[in-house]
From TrEMBL:
Keyword tags: Secreted, Signal
Domain (CBM1): residue spans on this chain: 16-51
Major localization listed first in the record, in broad terms: secreted
Entry-linked InterPro entries: CBD (IPR000254), CBD_sf (IPR035971)
Comp. bias intervals (Pro residues): 61-71
Name of this protein: CBM1 domain-containing protein
Length: 268
């Protein structure tokens, strides 16, 4: 099993400080301070986290911010986009996201979701309200790929592994594993980037860990926080947040960080 821990020893005998987006309090552990520029924010009796201090949020300027690109509904197509790699431009068209009423573009059999964590894999979940202990997974699983990336019930939680910058969902040898893909927008100031699961690897950006926190980085977008995610709408779709965490959150969305969890079962 993988154990995530990070302790910054300031001086001999000094109190430990927690780093960015690490847990700093909650039931069963002492309250801890955060490193400079970060503050410990309590989300519920069980969990507190180091988040950017209020003073670190960007101040409004006289130049109007670009209007967020409307988030496609689950029955709409994701718009096409252009990706620039050095001097070469690759035009890609993100797929239509599968919904319960719309068939996807690829065939993939339905695989039962094991309720016990497999060795070498992890659950990924939110740890703050309003999606406390909601788990990352593709939905709906009864239709072909691509499938929307959502936070949903622990009973259908997917299991993941991060390999070579790819976030891979385990299909337990019964069908191809799925990859979390990220929208590549033409407008690099777009506030929300859609994510989805497909059988093809992600071609835009790189996933990583910051402690137990899932991050995403890419060279052509300067994100203030690589661990910032948005969970939007009644379907709780998961988006990359390209803006500041807990700052000017788009309507209908909630700021979240999402974390690996290696308990035997996905807790409720």
């Amino acid at each position: 099993m993988r154990v995530f821990s990070a302790v910054l020893l300031l001086t001999a005998g000094a109190a430990a400080q927690r780093g960015p987006y690490e847990q700093c309090g909650g039931t069963g552990r002492p309250d801890e301070s955060c490193s400079a520029g970060w503050q410990c924010t309590t989300y519920n009796p069980y969990y507190a986290q180091c988040v950017p201090a209020a003073t670190s949020a960007p101040a409004p300027t006289s130049t109007p911010a670009p209007s967020p690109t409307p988030v496609p509904s689950s029955s709409q197509l994701i718009t096409s986009s252009s990706r620039v790699i050095t001097t070469l431009t690759t035009v890609t068209t993100p797929p239509s996201i599968t919904t319960s009423t719309q068939a996807g573009s690829g065939s993939l059999p339905v695989v039962p979701t094991p309720t016990t964590l497999q060795s070498g894999w992890y659950w990924i979940r939110a740890v703050a309200t309003p999606n406390y202990r909601s788990y990352l997974q593709p939905q709906p699983t009864s239709t072909p790929v691509p499938r929307a990336a959502v936070l949903a019930n622990s009973k259908t939680a997917a299991q993941f592994q991060l390999t070579s910058g790819q976030l891979i969902q385990n299909n337990f040898g019964n069908s191809p594993n799925l990859y979390l893909n990220v929208e590549n927008p033409t407008d690099k100031t777009q506030r929300r980037l859609r994510t989805w699961f497909d059988t093809t690897p992600n071609t835009y950006g790189t996933f990583g860990w910051q402690g137990d926190t899932l991050t995403w980085t890419v060279s052509d977008i300067n994100r203030p926080n690589s661990a910032a995610w948005l969970v939007c709408g009644d379907s709780k779709e998961v988006f990359i947040n390209t803006g500041a965490f807990l700052w000017d959150t788009p309507a209908g969305c909630f700021d979240h960080t999402i974390h690996s969890y290696n308990g035997a079962q996905a807790d409720v």
